[in-house]
From TrEMBL:
Residues 2-196 form the N-acetyltransferase domain. Pfam families: Acetyltransf_1. GO terms for molecular function: acyltransferase activity, transferring groups other than amino-acyl groups. InterPro entries: Acyl_CoA_acyltransferase (IPR016181), GNAT_dom (IPR000182), Trichothecene_AcTrans (IPR052523). It comes from Mycobacterium dioxanotrophicus. It comes from the Bacteria. This is N-acetyltransferase domain-containing protein.
Length: 198
């Protein structure tokens, strides 16, 4: 059975690469940055910034020799100190390469912030599997990594699924869909909540 492990610093370039590749065709990312060439550039830059922040203040897990990666924020955690939040957001927004894409990303960020639970929880920010390695249990291994800890701690877990297919995977691991989140003409995101088991 595939096992996940916490990433080490040498894993970080592979984490950036697998997340960039996994989300290249994602319908939400395609809505933010419609141009394929720009989206490929944007994805790499975006995940470089995000992975750097998670390396410092979150948890990064890998599975399948780096073919899968997950970015988790533990309960009560903060990706950056509050004083640095605007700087991080600005760095992420700057990756889009165009005013319209920046505006769409900013609108989505605002909606995600507004709908984020106020109670402490394990938050799965991103999980991606190399398209060539999908269906091999890597997603389940990455989920089990933090959800086992959440269950031990009696903590709930939260995420936003970016597609109906992803939503089904998360439902198999105990998440329940809380509704749909749509900004302007974006595809739906699905906020999902999981109560601790046991």
């Amino acid at each position: 059975m595939t096992q996940a492990r916490r990433a080490t610093q040498p894993d970080l370039p592979a984490v950036v690469g697998v997340l960039s590749e996994a989300f290249f065709a994602d319908r939400i990312f395609r809505w933010i940055v419609p141009d394929d060439e720009q989206r490929r550039r944007c994805g790499h830059l975006f995940y470089e910034v995000l992975v750097e922040a998670f390396w410092r203040n979150g948890e990064i897990w890998v599975a399948g020799a780096g073919k899968g990666a997950a970015l988790w924020l533990p309960p009560g955690g903060s990706l950056v100190p509050p004083a640095d939040a605007e700087t991080l957001a600005a760095r992420l927004l700057a990756t889009t390469g165009g005013a319209e894409s920046t505006a769409r990303m900013a609108e989505l960020f605002a909606a995600l912030d507004a709908h984020h639970p106020t109670e402490p929880c394990w938050y799965l920010n991103f999980m991606g599997i190399d398209p060539a390695a999908q269906g091999q249990g890597l997603g389940s291994a990455l989920l089990a990594s933090a959800l086992g800890q959440a269950d031990q701690e009696g903590m709930p877990a939260y995420l936003e699924a970016s597609s109906p297919q992803n939503r089904k995977l998360y439902e198999r691991h105990g998440y329940e869909t809380m509704g749909e989140l749509i900004v302007s003409d974006s595809p739906a995101l699905y906020p999902m909540w999981r109560l601790p088991v046991g």
